[in-house]
Amino acid sequence: MSGSAVRLLDRSERCLRCGGELRLARGARAPDDAVVGIAGASGPVGRAVASRLEGLGVPRRLVVADALPADQSSLSRALEGVKALVLVDFPQVSAIDAARAAGVERLVYVSELGADADATHTAARRHFEAEERARTTGMPATILRPSLHLDLLPTLCSPDGVLRSAAADGRVASVSRGDLADVAVAALTRDGHVGRTYDVTGPDSQTMEDIARHLSVASGRRVSYVRETVDEARESRIATGAAVWEAEDWSSCFGAIAAGEMDVVSDTVTTITGHEPETLADFLGRHPESLRHLAPA
Length: 297
Prior knowledge:
The chain is an alpha/beta fold and 297 residues long.
């Protein structure tokens, strides 16, 4: 569509590396000399995937869509010559069609936990449509359905020490972006994952009250959980400058948690990568900067 732009990253951007430890799956290997594309490479998960593929010496092409929905013809041109593709942050059928038109022969699609036509989370509905298209293209594909990103949890708490959410008493087993990237790379570079759909979660399911307690312990400051309605969550997001559709995605994600649709714990990270998934305590210990906004005045 007009107003959307797709571009390849320049040399300096190709050198971006994600923070934290680089952990490659046991037995991981470069698939061959074919170029691997990473669509959505400007986001944190895309950067993490790129970093891990760089560690394996895999030739790669990093593709950025500056706006969504991405223009299908532009994306297809950007993917010409790409044989394997990791598709991140593209919950849309047109991205699947672009990959097929470009001749992509292997797809790892990063979807959303609970993806379904009737999902509460609006993004999960779009992801489900893209999943269905991926399954009908004939491309050998692996679909990953990650839970809420663990890395986001500290940002849910405002500087005044209040975690506001429409999740009610629902539970979620959040997964770190690093663990998700490890799974994506393993699914791409190891055999046995074509045609599979994996829920990708953290090791334990927690309420927002549990998360607030973890933030309190790690920050040394009392963090309280305040429940809000989905409508309140949407309006507060719009007040920050978010587009209406972004606010709908945000608020409905927590509505899905409240509805029990995110209360899933899988062993995917351990089974596929060979290492245990990161806990919230692990993450906060490794990333004290994530709590900087909660530092005492």
